């Protein structure tokens, strides 16, 4: 694809703007700003990544990964505003998911610790984990408010905070993991994921592209489950006092 | 409960000091609590002992200077108008809330010093609104065994169901298939299965008809007699308080205005 071909694809954005204008949907400005932001942000990141890939420096690569985790933690933490220490919990849950998944891929030689491999793979891991952590925080907040009576009844019977929260934790982790599992089930049948599509478009044979996609599917399920477990088991404690009483809403 | 001890350890001195302090708070003679016979000390430790308990929330006083003691086997009616702090009192005894001031002791030890899970297994609490969790009745009646880390005793469950006038088959029913009265009885059995020493009942027959009220009262009375279960119950029903209570606590705007024998209370109030 040459630059002119890429520029011509902007016609599709103009089509979207026209449809919005014609039906008075009122999204013309949003679509325009969104598409300009996408072009600017991706161009900048393209240059940054080229520089970082050329530099191939362990410390800088690691710092970039930590920065990515921090940004993702800030976003997912917004889903659980009422939870104490939410930002640090979110950060460490995402970090744990990344370390275990990336560590496994490196250990088995699936990828090398080079910025050109580690940064895109981590981007996918952190992005999916961020969504899972957000779902966890949102679900915990909603359930601890809605099922307060059930929790207190269980506490009254002598259940610990963990025992009383068990069914909420199970449901929360299940909800957070379900999208990744559903997505894995439909791979190749309903969807050809972005990474695989990109590799095929770049000229890699589909039989090779699927290997990477299989690796990505496995690592995402692993990362999401680790993040969901850690986020749930850390965050539920903040709803209780040291005396295993439910905190006032 | 009476302890006979020799003062030779720090713990025993602390226990003695604890008893003495309580006796001063009640303005009773210290010797009625501690009798020194030679080197031996006889010390009375209550099953439940509240001393100058206060509770406030967001600047509002809910309970103000509550002091009373409960001995093993007591059957205490807690009376008072709505909003007088009865439910808050139960929540504090069960440690669902901590007092803002004062202390609550169970067997001579501050309740805040017990592991909360252990204390709550000894002091059961049945809410006014019966709340059943999970999907079936079995989920509710098997839960106490999970908490106690014991095998489910189906015979014991069947025994309680029979006493509560409920069929054994109810175990497989969904929780939303039960009437309010049936749910209340299941909630009560669920608490009894934990085998508490004290049971706090918050308007436990409010949703029951006359016949089922009698059935549930019989169940509680049999536990009281056979297991020496100590009961504190909140009720707005004077006839029920007369039927069941040996002692009465009366709360008015968060203050304890009467604590004594039920006979004395009903004579005083001409009820």
Secondary structure: elements and pairs:
The complex is a heterodimer of chains A (249) and B (271).
Chain A: H1 3-8, H2 10-22, H3 28-55, H4 58-77, H5 86-107, H6 115-146, H7 148-156, H8 161-185, H9 194-201, H10 206-235
Helix pairs in contact in A: 2-3, 4-5, 4-6, 5-6, 5-10, 6-8, 6-10, 7-8, 8-10, 9-10
Chain B: E1 2-6, H1 10-25, E2 34-37, E3 40-44, E4 48-57, E5 60-70, E6 75-80, H2 86-93, E7 101-106, E8 109-110, H3 116-122, E9 123-126, H4 137-147, H5 154-163, H6 180-192, E10 198-202, H7 210-226, E11 230-234, H8 238-244, E12 247-252, E13 255-261, H9 262-268
Parallel strand pairs in B: 6-11, 6-12, 9-10, 10-11
Antiparallel strand pairs in B: 1-3, 2-3, 4-5, 4-7, 7-8, 12-13
Helix pairs in contact in B: 4-6
3D structure, described in words:
The complex is a heterodimer of chains A (249) and B (271). Chain A is mainly alpha-helical and 249 residues long. Helix content of chain A is 78%, strand content 0%. In chain A, α2 (10-22) runs antiparallel to α3 (28-55), α5 packs across α6 and α7 crosses α8 (161-185). The longest helix of chain A has 32 residues, at 115-146. Chain B has 271 residues and is an alpha/beta fold. Chain B contains 9 helices and 13 strands. Chain B has helices at residues 10-25, 86-93, 116-122, 137-147, 154-163, 180-192, 210-226, 238-244, 262-268; strands spanning 2-6, 34-37, 40-44, 48-57, 60-70, 75-80, 101-106, 109-110, 123-126, 198-202, 230-234, 247-252, 255-261. In chain B, α4 runs parallel beside α6 (180-192). The two termini of chain B are 32 Å apart. The model of chain B is unreliable at 4-10, 23-33 and 35-39 (pLDDT under 50).
Quick overview of this protein structure:
Chain A is an all-alpha fold and 249 residues long. Chain A contains ten helices and no strands. In chain A, helix 4 packs across helix 5, helix 6 packs across helix 8 and helix 9 runs antiparallel to helix 10.
